[in-house]
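Recap slide: Acyl-CoA carboxylase subunit beta, sequence and predicted structure.
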Amino acid sequence: MTVLASSLDPTSPELAANREAMLTKLAELDAEHAKALAGGGPKYVERHRKRGKLLARERVELLLDPDTPFLELSPLAAWGSDYTVGASLVTGIGVVEGVECLITANDPTVRGGASNPWSLKKALRANDIALANRLPVINLVESGGADLPSQKEIFIPGGAIFRDLTRLSAAGIPTVAVVFGNSTAGGAYVPGMSDHVIMVKERAKVFLGGPPLVKMATGEESDDESLGGAEMHARVSGLADYFAVDERDALRQARRVVARLNHRKAYGDPGPAQPPKYAADELLGIVPGDLRTPFDPREVIARIVDASDFDEFKPLYGTSLATGWAALHGYPVGVLANAQGVLFSEESQKAAQFIQLANQRDIPLLFLHNTTGYMVGSQYEQGGIIKHGAMMINAVSNSRVPHLSVLMGASYGAGHYGMCGRAYDPRFLFAWPSAKSAVMGPQQLAGVLSIVARQSAAAKGQPYDEEGDAALRAMVEQQIESESLPMFLSGRLYDDGVIDPRDTRTVLGMCLSAIHTAPYEGARGGFGVFRM
């Protein structure tokens, strides 16, 4: 085997400093995750419990097979906005009756589970994951519908939720709705468009218009139960397929529905997996606090792939990008990992060839980001950096094997695109707390603006305001720094979550398992024109 040798010294001051910086970032991350876990806060959590109801994550836990993990997705959605962190919705992948499922659960302690613009983005991302990976969808429903003050941002794009449910069903991907409380107005179409519907006695309320709206529209007097209660839908309308006496019974019935789906993975069990030779805890000390300091991504690869076994491809060519073959939890992967930050022509050509090889062999690709982008300067422009960078981006864009991305450090400029950033539809994308992503680094961006302003003043024959320039640069640097941090980006769903580096192997293993539920085949051509 080609086991990676590690030169990491666990006792070095540099490692200790890096580890301390990472632990500080993880503590900040934990504080933000705690806000999502807190939901609407103690007052509304207590009110919900007094009604004899389970919290959203308690419902998820009872639904899952005992002692199995739940990969929560987008837990920081809406971070930095006016809405509660988590966006009143829990989404993730978990195992139910031995079947990997995409699970969503409204959090009724946050404005009654009403959907805001970030809830919508989060739900649509979950549907994309379910469709791409053929994961059955289980919606644990208790929502008052759209958050009306923000309806202008929800109503038009919100129709995609119902479109997605029908497309999932049409693709043979099962959809299950378990209704615990309100599912009204447009929300009534969630059970209405699901393959299997379970409603809780005297709790579920499913109607297009509640009693007040019916009174205003038709003059009819009605009540919740006769208009849209679980028993009515089970006995009269037929919307409910299963009638549950309480929440736990509803979750038990949901598990039985999944057990009878006959839903099978496209691929069998993966090959045998051996743990890495090096401790995952050491991942905390690899990325420097200052991302301008390079680090060897092979130290990361050695701590996440099976047996730390890595067959490197073209190790002496394009050395700023490490590429090679490995296995992760028994699944074969091709790895592309930035080494010294900058991508040159050689790295771009090497990446394009490697991606083509992975497609020929039907091997998923894992991108480990730490890049400041493609190299600039007259020497590199004359050497063809544009066409070579375009070649790499072309290969990533038209590759048909599943892609996974992890942002470890910097992910700037077109390098973010070439390394399969969000716009290039990786099946999953996660970030470490050390990651940063923007059009370029804060100092570089502020410096560019300063040079342009200085040249503009000179062209007009005007004196240049040095004090104003210094203030502008400081302001821009601060703005770009704050907008390139992982929590800011995760809040906007530019990734699927910010993860502890020590969990990277587990998270990627769960993702690879989900990916192998759906059949895939690499591109055998069709990459478009490579400018040579």
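The radius of gyration is 25 Å.
The longest strand covers residues 403-412.
(End of recap.)
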